[in-house]
Specification:
about 110 residues, 5 helices, 2 strands
Amino acid sequence: LEAAIVKLGDAVGRTAAIEVMDLSPAASALLKDISRQPASPECFEQMADIEMSRGDARGHRRAAQCYRVAAGLGSTHAMTELGKLYQRGVGVGQDQRRGAYLRTVAAAMAG
């Protein structure tokens, strides 16, 4: 797998190194665009959606990686989607407790 290390500034100006493995061409193009600006959870959600649309196991794993980054940036949508992936065992090892936890935290944060 070809790995790219992309440094992205988050909303408060800190720099984070995020490893993204072997993305599809569409997600790679989006990553190139977002690498020039502060990290946004929405950009990683878009990448996750692109990867999920592939419909294969590798795309699902990539989507889970993108949702993890977006969730780490505070996206309740990404937490919910990642929770669903854990509960179904899609792109990640199945873990009902972790999935339920992520969805509960996201619901509490969303109000």
